[in-house]
Structure formats: structure tokens, C-alpha cells
Automatic annotation (TrEMBL):
PANTHER family: DIS3-LIKE EXONUCLEASE 2, RIBONUCLEASE
Ranges of residues in domain RNB: 228-474
SMART domains: RNB
Protein name (database record): RNB domain-containing ribonuclease
Amino acid sequence: MSVIVSDMTVHREWAIYEKRSELVCAPLAVVTPRTVSLTSGDKIPRHRVWLIVQEESTPLVVEAKAYAASMDIDILWRAAAGRSLDAATLAACVNAEGNVGTLAVVQKIINNPAYFYRNSGVFQPAAAEVLEKAKAALCRRASDAKEEEQLLTELSAGRIPQEVAAAAVNLLMRKNKNTSIFKAVKKAAGGEQHIAEYLVKIGLFADARSCWEAMFIHNWPAPSTEDKVSLPALPFSSARAFSVDDAGTIEVDDAFSVQAEGSGWLIGLHIAVPAMAPLSVGDYETMRLTSVYFPDVKHPMLSSEQIEAYSLHAGCYCPTLSLYCHFNPTTGNIGAPQTRLEKVFISHNFALENFEQQVPAAVRTQYEVLCTFAAHLPSARREDGTRLNYRISTNPPGVIADVRSSVSVVVEKLMRYVNSVWAKQLYKKGGLFRANGVTITRPSSTKPYAWLSSPLRRYVDLANQRLLLFLLGQAPSPAVNWPKLAKMFNVQYVHARYYQDQMERHWVLRALADLPANTVLKAQLLPRNRIRLEGYPLCGTLNPPASGVLDETIEVRVRDLDFFAQRAYFAPV
């Protein structure tokens, strides 16, 4: 249908045009070569305008829509016979006469966009094979819509469909958003942001914590089932070592010993050697490459058999890869380090939190030597004596904040020394190194740093230890795909740390929820109405805002806690 009007002329006619797959009419104002301007201010492309008449044309549009409802789109598509036709010609092919018939054809086509392509008012029938695929897609869409409606009806009636229960974790992680299951649950929950809360409400999860853990386990490889334990005959060391670790630790990776030697001391740093067992290689995507510790549960990297065999438990001789060096406390001189594969007797496993109260006099003397030794080691980072450590408990929920103990600082410096010394032996031989917070294969620095001190907890340490044993002539060359391992370890390590942070944040919120009503807390002001709580590893939002300068200490009360979005809101006192 062609519309002939002079350009740039003000009119008082009515335009029938296409809007959101419907024909509508409205008074027009100006017609230009490309657009039609309506009196409402809207501009419509010329190829979307189908008729301009002298008077209000709503009855014509209503009649055309009713006529279109009785048309068969398949007959209309066959009538075109592969030809590109305008609306009037196509209407004549199916004996639809006049403006009503022409507009009805237009309405039918815009309601069924799969049948025709449109180009500036001309309709081109879709190819037969393309149309069949489009019809199949429409059938699937109709079927999905029906299934979505049925699921929504079940959920509204308080029943949990089996399909919804089976897809619970995927719903939490917002996967497969185009499925009828996701769309039904999204509507029932009132939006994507409320899905987790809704799934807890209908009983598929116990609480927000179980939601976070379910998402973690869904993407976390299955636990190791390997029980390969190899404890070859090794020479016995004369050292008696002790370990210092967090309470409840099941993977004791390191221990320390001090023996009198000449004018000084022989310092021994002993690391567990699970690398004596055959090293798993290949499909790193299906392996746990690190242990993960939530406040209320542990997900170890190795199997329980391997942990039991290689962990440095007190009261027995344990295989260790030991680094020895002579230390003269008078001069501060540190001798050349030596590495030995041996069995060392572990006398004590001390808890870090109670070390000062537990340590006997003999071990305290050794610890004081270690403190002096650590003070002479080069420090790779500036020590902050005011930095707080947070210990999160779950029964009951609580947070214990204390200044970082001197014991933890000493242990960290000793482990960094072990890692630095052994990293130099791996340099240019292979292995994985640390740089800028990630694991890499080729360090650019002449002072490389590698993780080797926690082989029971990190696969990178285990692989590096296997290579070190090979360089010492104690094991065959490890068949490790170093670049692939580095990539997968970085991915899984970030993933594990993310969920560990989420679980810790959950228990911090639980601790705040258990405080007596109107408890006054202290916090520091941050930009954009944010605050950092004192005594809690948590930042929150202040509402209403408080006046003050940045980093100023103010008093606040808990206003609201969102366990699903993991947000905390506070009000100034």
C-alpha cells in the first residue's frame, strides 16, 4: 500500500501504524521522507506506517484485527509463492479486499514474524526449511509456557514439583534462565534476587548457610578416593620436633626443631612429604587442588588415608623433608641450608591459640631460639603489630578479635624462609612459583618464591615437592603439565576463597543477630555512607547517614541483616 503525501506538510489526518506488534491509530503532525511525526511527539519510521486517512480510524483497525484472527497464516505464506509483495498485492492473493483486508494481512504477518521477512513495506516469504525450524521453536516455546504455568500452579498451591527439587542448586546459581522451571520459580519468588529466600521458605534448603554451601559443593570436585600410601625406609633424625597450628587442624604440614651444635644451634624446619606417594596428573579440572575451611566444616584436598599417613602427628616418627641450617645467635650468622629426606620424631602438636599456656619449659627454650633466628631472616613484608586476627565460632555464633600473636608471625617467617630456599633449587628446573598473588610457571625475578610448605593442603606445594624430591634423587621425574596446573589452581583457589569468605560472613552476621537488642557497636566512617565495624571483619551501610569525617569512630546499632544478600545495615546512635 502506498501513501502519497507532500513532504514537510502539517496534516490533520490520522495515521495507522505498527506499534509493538499491533496496529494502532493516532493523529499525525508532520510527514518527512523518512519519518511520520505524531501530535503526541512520537516519530514513526515511514515503512511502519500503513495508511493515512482523513478521520479517526479506530473502528477500521478493530475490524482489521478481527478479520486477521480468522486468517490462516500458512495459506497466506503459500499464496506469496516465494515472491516479494507489498501488503495490498498479498491481500489480493487471498481475496482480502479493501483497506480492511490489507490491514488484516499486515496484522496477521506482524503477529507471525517467522513466516515473512519485511523490508520497507515489502514482504518476503521465509524459506521452507527456515520456517520449519521456526515452527519447531514455537512449539517448544508453547510447550515450555504450558509447563511453566503448570509448575507455577503447583508452587502456588504449596506443593513442590519434583522438577523444581531436582534443579534446586541450579536455581540458586541462576543457571539455565530460559527453562520453564527457572521462569516459574522466578515468578513465584517475586524476582531473581529472592530465589534463594524462596527456596528456603518452601523447605528445599534449611537456611542461607546451606544455600551457600550447596552452591560451593555443586562446583567443587568430589573428594579424593586415593588410598595410595608409600612409606619407604628412611634414616631416623636425632631431632625432636614440635608443631604449632590452629586448633582442630587435621593436616599438620610443618614442625620445628632446635639442637645444640658447636657454638650455636642447628635449626630444623620439617615439612610433611605426601609427594612420596604417586602423584596424580592429567585431568586437573576434576581434582581438588586445595583444602577449603569453612567455620563449621572442612573440605580436605587429600583422602583421609593420605592425611593420616603423612600428617605430622605427635608421638611418632613421621617422614619429613627437612631443611637444616646452623645459626649462631651471637653473630647472627646463618649457615648454608641443607635438605634431607628423613623420619623425625614429633613430640608435640600445639594449638596456636593456647601455645603460650601449653608450651613446657624445654620447648619454650627452643621456641626462643626460633624467635631469635626468625628475627635475623629477611622479611618480605612489613610486619604490622596492630593487625587483628579474627576467629569465628559457630556454637554459639561469635567473633573473637585479637592482635596477631608473635607465634604466628614467627611461624610465617620460618615458612617463608623454607619456601624461598627451595624455590631457588626449583628455579629454571620447573615447578610453579608465586608472583603478584597468582601461580605462574616462569618467575622473572632472580629471587623466586614458591609454595612448598603446605603439601597436604595445596596441590601446588605437592607438585613442587615432587619435583624437589626428583632433584634430590629421591623420586622419579614428575609428569606434570605445569601450565595447565597453574591455570586450574588459580581458578579453583579463587573459587574456594570466595566461598570461604561468604561462609565466614554468614557466621559474622549470625553473631550480630544474636546480640541483645539495641547493642551499641563502634565503627569507622567510610565513604558513601559505609562503615567498618570494630571487632568484626565486616563493613556495612549506614542509614540514615551520620555526619562526621572519614575514619572517625562513631557508635551504631544493628538496623537490619540480610543473610541472603549478605548485607548489614546500621543506624547511628
